[in-house]
Amino acid sequence: MERQRLRILFLSQRNSARSMMAEAIANSIGQGQFEAHSAGVRPSAKVDPLAVEALEHAGVPAPDHPPRHVREFSAPDSPPLDFVFTLSDTAAGEAPPSWPGHPITAHWRCTDPEQFDDPADKRRALSRTRSELERRLRVLTNLPIDSLDRLSLQSQVEALGRGERS
């Protein structure tokens, strides 16, 4: 029997770079295993063009939607989520909503590209973030999710966020 795709939400402050990149990478390398989405607690008006550039450089298609608000995924009638990963300290510090499906949550801190004024520094930060996210998501893809209990899976995804090998 084929397993249902796991629904993942990546949450950042603006949903303009980090979370968009995570969504794109998860949908690209997840080989149909994931249905990834992204949102922000205070969404930007548009996606960061340097984040799109970083994805294109890696051969990953960028999401074709504007930044979205977390409310789209936390409403009572929203489809259930399996995982919610916060990528920014700001998003992690927000009071979490009641998520449909009672997902496993973890903080996967990524550098905020907005802290860099110089475009070259911002590109380097986004490149590192893309690489970090890809590594974490490749490990997640290879976890024996079906054979892990909830507590073990929670521990595994939290370790990924701390940069520990599982």
Please give a structural write-up.
The chain has 166 residues and is an alpha/beta fold. The chain is built from six helices and four strands, in the order βαβααβαβαα. It has helices at residues 18-29, 49-57, 71-74, 89-93, 119-142, 150-161, and strands spanning 6-12, 34-40, 83-86, 104-107. It has a four-stranded parallel β-sheet. Helix 1 (18-29) runs parallel beside helix 5 (119-142) and helix 2 (49-57) crosses helix 5. It is globular, with a radius of gyration of 15 Å. The mean pLDDT is 92.
Task: Describe the structure using short key phrases.
166 residues, alpha/beta, Rossmann fold, 4-stranded parallel β-sheet
Number of separate domains: 1
Strand order, main sheet: write it out: 2-1-3-4
Order of helices and strands: EHEHHEHEHH
Q: End-to-end distance, in Å? A: 27 Å
Q: Label the CATH architecture.
A: 3-Layer(aba) Sandwich
Query: If you average the pLDDT, what whole number results?
Result: 92
Rg of Cα set? 15 Å
Assign the CATH topology: Rossmann fold
CATH homolog superfamily: Response regulator
Brief overview:
This protein is an alpha/beta fold. The protein contains six helices and four strands, in the order E-H-E-H-H-E-H-E-H-H.
Topology (elements, then pairings):
Elements: E1 6-12, H1 18-29, E2 34-40, H2 49-57, H3 71-74, E3 83-86, H4 89-93, E4 104-107, H5 119-142, H6 150-161
Parallel strand pairs: 1-2, 1-3, 3-4
